[in-house]
Structures are given as structure tokens and as C-alpha cells.
Amino acid sequence: MESTILKSRNFNASFGTNHVVKNVNIDIPRNHIIAVMGPSGCGKTTYLRCINRMHELIPGATSNGEMKLNDEDVYQMHPIFVRLKIGMVFQRPNPFPNLSIYDNVIAGYKLNGIKLPKGERDGIVERSLTKVALWKEVKDSLNKKGSFLSGGQQQRLCIARTVAMEPEMILFDEPTSALDPISTSTVEELFHELKANYTLVIVTHNMQQAARVSDKTAFFYMGELVEYDETKIMFTNPKDNRTQNYITGRFS
Amino acid sequence: MDGKYVKYRLGKSYGFQSLVYLLAFACIVPLLAILFYIIRAGITKINWHFLVNIPKPVGESGGGIANALVGSIIIILVAAVIAVPIGILAGVYLSEHRKGRLAYWCRLSTDILQGVPSIVIGIVAYFWLVRPWDIGFIHHRGGFSALSGSVALAIMMLPIIVRSTEETLKLLPDSLREAALALGMPFHRVMFKVIIPVGISGILSGIMLSVARITGETAPLLFTAFGNPYLSVNIGKPMQSLPLLIFNYATSPYQDWLNLAWGASLILLVWVLFLNIFTKVITRKWKVQF
């Protein structure tokens, strides 16, 4: 049996009185790619942000229920440790504009004040950039600012920054919605490479992307987790009518 | 429509345009006039001797403004040391907590503080630091001192730094903060390693402008730093400063002292001009590109 890395039970999240994630129960298996899809405003991003406790940073945001990472309650841990174990990549590439490419990759160590010998740092930078297929493109310009890169390269730089911290899970919040088609396919190829070492949760409103890249797919609608199954089953033989309607494009 | 009416409207338009140009030019005139007048009167008084000597007693010719120059620099530096950390941290607080009771009161007080007449701030510093007081276990001896002047000037700097820091940091995208937080950084590191460095050009320009603003302040120094005809570097004792020197010597009947006042005015003016230009340069140079 495959091991479960993240488990949610009766998980709820709200902004003030606006209840946006309702009673979500989900088991995420290790080293899998999970796509989370659903129409705009269905709570998929909010749920994702609850996993690494970014949700609570918004004033008025609350959540309750069980969220366990390796049987440890995420909401009992200090958020800083949660975020070190569960990395996040955002919708828009957000490299640190004041740092070089090199420092951006190592930012998680450098800005956290973790001192590493230079050799080790160089190793981490090269390994992380290689993992995101960016090393060849930027190895001669590591001292340039990260914001000089193109959008797709910046997004891969942000993935490298997350990978460098060696998290257990990486959350992607619509990671390709700000990218062109070619960069999108580069990033999607990356997902398959990363799967070997990490568990990926990808929020997307692009159904084709969910079908292309994921092992399992979760469908959110109006804050509820409607259906969660193998991607193949979700797209060929969904059990719930609403999933059926969504994937056939009857509503979006 | 007939041509005559169009011409009339065009004429009106040209008339209005010329008026706008004229009024825009009128804004430049006062500065040019001040520059012209001060430079003409002051430039001949400035030389090396003027910069490194202290004023001579009445009756002797020559003398310089070294004591005021050194005093101004010290008083401003001390004021900056007091105001900059408080101002930046308060600005950080306001940009992070946009709502909330403390933020509201803090914002309101800085706004009001900005409008408080400088002489009133001087009086407050006088009551706090210059007048002796005794609350049982602390005996404050008081007395005029450069430090009390610096405190008064720091109070004047504070609102400018707080608001410029707040405005700068507010403009930074939330994604920057989220990027840092998602890497597991604690709040203070997010602030000191990411948010403040990225907004540094705006924060620095606020500091520079606040320094330019207080450089010429005379009123708060009248009964705090008080002035001193000799060179002093002790911040616990009265100290001369450029605006005080100008104030005292410009109203004196002696030509030598008047010359010193003119020279000092020019120095003050150049200082403020330089700070303003320097601020423009660093905001452009250090601006972080996204």
C-alpha cells in the first residue's frame, strides 16, 4: 500500500463569515502528483494555502479540522517548520528582485540565517537549478538579478528556490497561468522529474493540464471536495454528475 | 460652424495655455531669486579660512563658522540616530497592520505631528530635557544641550520617515512577502532581509528629505541647543549650529558677523540642494526592479 503523506479530515476554512472550504477529506499519497481543479472561487487555492498555513496570514481568515503531515498535526506545529517541510510556488513568478539568481536559489538558507560552507552552497545551487532544467541556461549569469530572466525562467527559478530547501511536499498555485505555452510545457515536464523526490499538489483551472500531468485529481465545487480519484477515472468515468458536467464543459 | 467662432475658441485655448506656462514658470522664480541673492552675497565670504575657523570676537576681522558646521552635523547625526530606527520600525508596523486601533492612532499622531509648529516641539524638548526635574529617584539636572536639540529635531523627522517608509512598503507586492514566508522565514527576517532591502530606496529618500527638512530648523534649537561661540563636540553642552548662527549674526550690527551669516546661509542652501539632488539620484539608482 502506498504511504499517505497528507491527510485532511473535516477541514474547513473561512474568510470572516464567508465559508470557502467545506468539510474536505482527502488523503494525498507520497510521491504522487495531485491536481486540484474546479471553477473560479471554488476554494481550491484557499485549501492549498491551508496546507502550509499561508491562509492564516490573511486578516480575518480562519480554519478548523484536521490536517496531518505524516501523522503530525500541521496546526500544532510552528508555521515556520510547516513551511520548511511544505514548499510553495505561486501563480506569478516572484523571485526576490534584490537578489542574484544564485542568492535566489539559496534564499531559504541565506535569508533564514543558516550558514553553509561555500562548497555546499554551490552544490545546492547547481543541484536545484539542474533539477528545474535551468542550470544550462543560467550557469554563466548566476550573479545577475533574478528579475532579468524571462517569466518561464523566473518560475523555474522559484521552483528551484523551493526545491533547494528539500521539502517533502511542494504546493503549486496555478503555476503556469502567467506563462506562455512553451514555458508551460517546460514546467509540466518538470513535474514528472520532481515526482521522484517530492509530493506535488497542483492547483489548476486548466483541465487539460490536470489530465496531462497528474496521477490523481481532486475536483472542488462551491467549497466542497466533490470527487477525488485516479486522474484516468476522473476524466473517463467520473461518479459525480457535477464532475461530469465540469469536464465536459457544461459549466466552468 | 463658422470660422470666426473656431478662431475665438482657439484663441481662448492659446490664452489658457500661455497662462499655464506662465504660472509654472512662476514656481521656479522664487528659488532662482533665493539662489541668486544668496550666492551673490555669500560666495565671496566662503574660503578655506571661513570653513575651518570659529567666529572672532567683535572688533577682530575674519573668523569662520567651523563651530556651527561641526555642531549642525553632530546635532543632525544624533537626531537621525534617534529618529531613523523608530521611524522605520513604526513605518513597518503601519504597512503590515493597515487596520487596527494602534495603527489608526499611530497614523493620526504622525499626521498631526507633521503639522505641529517647530517652536512648539522646541518648547516640549525644553520642558523635558532642559529644565531640571525630579521625580524622586531620578534627578535630571537639565541645562541647554545639543542632545535636547537633537531630540526636538528627531521629533520633527519622525513623521516624515514613518510615512515615507509606510508608503514605500505598502507599494511592494504581497507576493514578495508570501515568497519569503513560504520559505519558512520568521517575520523579523522577512522584514529585515526582504521587505526593507527591496524598499530601501524609498526609505532612504524619506530619511534624506527629513534631514533636509530639519537642517534649516532654527526655532526648536533656540532654547535647546542654544548656540555656542566656541567649537564644542560635547552633546551634553550647548552647541552652535548653522541656523542658530544665521539667526544670531544676521541681526547683529557688525559687518564681520553679517558676512558670516551670509556665508553660512549659502552653505545651508547648498547642503539642502545637495541633499535633494542626492535623494533623487539614489531613488533612481537603488530602485529595485521587479
From TrEMBL, chain A:
Classification via InterPro entries: AAA+_ATPase, ABC_transporter-like_ATP-bd, ABC_transporter-like_CS, P-loop_NTPase, PstB-like
Domain ABC transporter: 6-247
Keyword Nucleotide-binding tagged: yes
Keyword field: ATP-binding, Nucleotide-binding, Phosphate transport, Transport
Keyword Transport: yes
GO molecular function term, any single one: ATP binding
Entry-linked PROSITE patterns: ABC_TRANSPORTER_1, ABC_TRANSPORTER_2
Cellular component, GO annotation: membrane
Any one biological process term the GO annotation gives: phosphate ion transmembrane transport
Record-given protein name: Phosphate import ATP-binding protein PstB
Lineage: Bacteria, Pseudomonadati, Bacteroidota, Chitinophagia, Chitinophagales
UniProtKB/TrEMBL annotation, chain B:
Subcellular location: Cell membrane
GO MF assignments: phosphate transmembrane transporter activity
Major subcellular site: membrane
Domain of life: Bacteria
Signal sequence extent: none
ABC transmembrane type-1 domain: residues covered: 69-279
Regions crossing the membrane: 20-43, 64-92, 112-130, 142-162, 190-212, 257-278
The keyword Disulfide bond is annotated on this UniProt entry: no
Membrane topology: Multi-pass membrane protein
GO (cellular component) term, any one: plasma membrane
Gene3D superfamilies, per database record: MetI-like
PANTHER family (alphabetical): PHOSPHATE TRANSPORT SYSTEM PERMEASE PROTEIN PSTA (PTHR42922:SF1)
NCBIfam families: 3a0107s02c
Stated family: Belongs to the binding-protein-dependent transport system permease family. CysTW subfamily.
Protein name: Phosphate transport system permease protein PstA
Organism: Puia dinghuensis
Highest classification ranks of the organism: Bacteria, Pseudomonadati, Bacteroidota, Chitinophagia, Chitinophagales
